[in-house]
Amino acid sequence: MNGDMMIRVGLLEDDPDWRRGLVDFLGSLPDIQLIWSAKDGEELRQALGKMDGDASAGVDVMLMDIMIDGKPEGVKLAEETAISTGARIIMLTSMEEKELILKSFQAGAIDYQLKSSFENLPDAIRAAYAKQSPISPAAAEQLREEFRRLKGIEREFEARKVGDLITPSELQLLSLIDEGYSQPQIADKLFITLRTVKNHVGNILRKLGAQGSKEAAGKARELGLLDGAKDKERDKE
Question: What spatial distance separates the first Cα and last Cα of the chain, rounded to whole Å?
Fold first, then answer.
C-alpha cells in the first residue's frame, strides 16, 4: 500500500510490556503506521501538541488504554483527544466494565476492544478509519446490559412517582378496569355509585395524563402497580 494511504495510528498504553507488544504487532501490518506512542497523559498531551504544528505527527485513529496508573484516566483523555484532534478513538482494556464502557462512548470513543483479543485490532482500526466501525460484540453486550439497568432504574422511578399520586381505592378501580370490568360492573362490585366511579376515573386520567381508562390501567400494569391490588382482590374472594 502507498505510504500516503496508510492509516496513521497513535497509542496510549501505560504498561511497558503491552506497549512494546502493540508497537511490534502494529509495526508488522502493511497498511497501518504507528506514528507515536505515549505511556501517560503527559506524553499524550505532548504528542497532541506536536500535531498542531506538524502534520506528520497527526493520526487518524487513537488506541487508548482506559486504565492509566490504575485509574480510568483514559476516559478523560479520550474526551480531550476527540475534541482536539477529531481522531477516531478505540479504547483498550483488560477488563469488561459496563460503567467504564458507557463513559468511554460518552467521552467520544467509537469502539472498545479487549487487550486479550488484540488480534482483532487491525480490523477495528481499518473500520474506524473508514468510519464504518461496528461496536465490538463484548462492548455491545455490556452496553445492552447497562441500558437495561438504566431502563430498570427509570421504570422504578416512574412507578414510585405514579404510586405516590394514585390512592389505594384508585388502584383497585384500575385493577378492575384492567380485568375488563365496565364502570357499572365496578360500581356494583365495590358497592359504590356509578357517579363515584366516574369521579375516580376522572381523577385517575388527570393524574396520569391518560386519554382513557384502559390506557391508564395499561400504564399502571406496565409499572407493576396493579399486582398488589389484584392480590388483595383474590384474598377477598
Answer: 80
**167 Cβ contact list (under 8 Å, min separation 6):** none
pLDDT tens-digit map of 56-101: 668 999 999 999 988 889 989 998 888 888 889 999 988 767 778 7
Its pTM stands at 0.58
- For 162-204, how does the pLDDT look when each residue is reduced to its tens digit (9 = 90+)? 888 899 899 999 999 999 999 999 999 999 999 999 999 999 9
C-alpha span between 199 and 206 (Å, rounded): 11
Instruction: Tell me if 108 sits within 8 A of 82, measured CB to CB.
Output: yes
Angle at 84 between CA 79 and CA 90, to 5 degrees: 50
Q: Compare 236 and 224 and report the one with higher pLDDT.
A: 224
CB atoms near residue 21 (< 10 Å): 14
What is the phi/psi pair of residue 111, to 5°? -160, 165
- Residue found under cell 474526551: 79
User: What span, in angstroms and rounded, lies between the C-alpha atoms of 221 and 102?
Assistant: 31
Q: Are 9 and 36 in contact (CB under 8 A)?
A: no
Q: Which element (helix H / strand E) includes 111?
A: strand 111-114
